[in-house]
Amino acid sequence: MLEIYGQAFATVLLPQNLIAMVLGALWGLLAGALPGISTSMGVVLILSFTYTLAPMTAFVLLVGAYLGGITGGGITSILFGIPGEPSSVPTVIEGHALAKQGKAAAMWTYLLCSIFGGLFSVLFMIVATPLIADFALRFGPAEYFALTILGLSVVSGLSGGSMLKGFLSCFFGLFLATIGTDGITGEERFTFGTVTLLGGVNFVVAMVGLLAVSEIMIEAEEPFKEYKGMVEYRGLLEELPRFSLFRKYWLTMIRSPIIGTIVGALPGAGATIAAFLAYGEAARTAKHEPAKFGKGAIEGLMAAECANNASTGGSMTILLSLGIPGSNTTAMLVAAFMIHGMQPGPLLLSQRPDIVYGIFTAMIVINLLLLAITGTAIRLFLQLNRLPYSVFSAAILILCVVGAFGINNSVDDMMLMFAFSLIGYFMRKFGVPVAPCILALVLGDLAELSLRRALLLAGGSPLGLVSSPISAVLLLGALVSIVYPLIKKPKMLASS
Amino acid sequence: MKTKGEVVFFAVCVAFFGFMGAQAVALMGEGRAGEIGSALWPLIALCAALGLSAVLLVQAVRRPAAAAVGGEASEPDARDEARRRRKAVVASTACFFLYLVAISFLGFILATLFFIPAFAFALGERRTKVLVAAPLILTTVMTAVFIKFLTIPFPKGVGVFAAFSRLFY
């Protein structure tokens, strides 16, 4: 085992991979730190540039952007009070309040806790992924179908306000996944004679349009702003917290990454619920200064950031072992695997252990890189917020165009991206979340093929889908994860 | 206003999913014997989407009266603001669409050079320095990174524009 990790470290530390990790982490930090770009948008913007890269280089670049984005969100949350991601809301509540009070330790406390949470979850990932993947090797088409349905059931967690709209988005995504040549019969479906659609809807084109361009269009509705503003930062020595701070809150430092990792591993839960749960738990059990929660409690900031970053390891565990993306960002990583001719899931560990163990070790290295990069470049990130926003959004759109065109060097793909951006804009405008659509687009093909294969094996009988205990349990899990929020929501409303 | 838009949006959804559903029905029975046809899965997705769109349409249709009575949309200021927002979105979206079209005719470099100030202007940018300097800097950076370094074969344009693009790639 040590030999495998030794090889993985040697691969990850190759110059091209090291450069990719640094660039990915920098880009992710930038995306997370700049208001208007989310982590998922950051990942999707570089996804299309990974086509020509070696698989390992591509994955470390994308994972770097993913981890960087989650970490970078804290910068704007603390300094500007703008949560780049919903998961950064507790960080805004406590971190921004601390920054406004002139509490120098806030920035570095956030950073150290983020990295600690990230590293903790990687250790969990290293232990849990092979165990889960080994179990999942028993899966046949029926189990795979059940697994994808469980993956799609995360729609309930990604729906935001309305479950109906979330499921509408999900079914739209499933429909989009059927466009093109049928994988079993070879029939053309919904192509209307166009050659562009014969190969199906490209993930990246759809993601760039639905997620990135539509976001800029929504931002265009906001009143004109020259800059996002500027906040004073005093420097490393003044901002670095003392070790006694972490000793004082040791219980929070242990409990929060555990919560984050477990919640991150649950489909649909993700970083937001992890951060809120850990923050809530810290507030509930606070012994030192509980009255400060909501007004600048450093313990709350520590809990939220530890859990927030720890959720990445949990999500990656389920992605690598079962092939289920728990969020739209990890859905993009599924797309990246497919682009490089791989399917994340139990077979990946036996077919491409180099990639899986490489990702494990890369996540350790990236977390350490993030500590170094963020620590030294905080001042630079703050300067970037002085870029004229109008020009900045134009630059993002150009990146979108480059991303869509670069896939097949096709102008048609750019137009398709534009069509998706309009769809994404109207979806967002009328409260239909785009994340379930992206998730369904990624999982749709696997779900359909598994269903049809399972039905063929069962002679067309739907009972074949629940004949094995594993598939029955997985389908039951999917049912529970869809129905539970429906039952829970009215209760929460009633109690509030 | 938003409610009216919602009604239109979900009505379009119903029409779209209904039309695609009809297309899916046409696919039925074309599979080989003993095989689950290629229409099954899209039909499941489209029927579900159609049903959900219809429910959301009904919900949206029932909402307007309540929204119009106490709604902010009836106030002149709010109407002006909504109009301003729509204008900015339409103008910036039109700029982006024209940019996509123009890339084929003007080439990537010239289209980008014109797109940046036009888009920034549409968003409300009025500072001359920004409108002049930003396109030059950004286009140079984009050209250096994507054309020179990553060698992406962007369209060169036609006629004289193609000749201009050939100076760079």
Structural account:
The complex is a heterodimer of chains A (496) and B (169). With 496 residues, chain A is mostly helical. Chain A has one domain. Chain A has 22 helices and two strands. Chain A has a two-stranded antiparallel sheet with strand order 1-2. In chain A, strand 1 and strand 2 form a beta hairpin. In chain A, helix 3 runs antiparallel to helix 4 and helix 7 runs antiparallel to helix 21. The longest helix of chain A has 32 residues. Chain A is globular, with a radius of gyration of 22 Å. The N and C termini of chain A lie far apart (52 Å). The C terminus of chain A is likely disordered. With 169 residues, chain B is mainly α. Chain B has two domains: 73 residues; 91 residues, no CATH class. Helices cover 79% and strands 0% of the residues of chain B. Chain B is built from seven helices and no strands. The mean pLDDT of chain B is 85.
Secondary structure layout:
The complex is a heterodimer of chains A (about 500) and B (about 170).
Chain A: H1 2-12, H2 15-33, H3 39-47, H4 55-79, H5 89-100, H6 106-136, H7 141-152, H8 155-158, H9 163-178, E1 180-181, E2 188-189, H10 203-219, H11 236-239, H12 243-248, H13 250-265, H14 270-285, H15 298-322, H16 328-339, H17 346-351, H18 353-384, H19 389-408, H20 411-429, H21 435-457, H22 469-495
Antiparallel strand pairs in A: 1-2
Chain B: H1 2-27, H2 40-62, H3 64-70, H4 76-106, H5 108-123, H6 128-149, H7 159-166
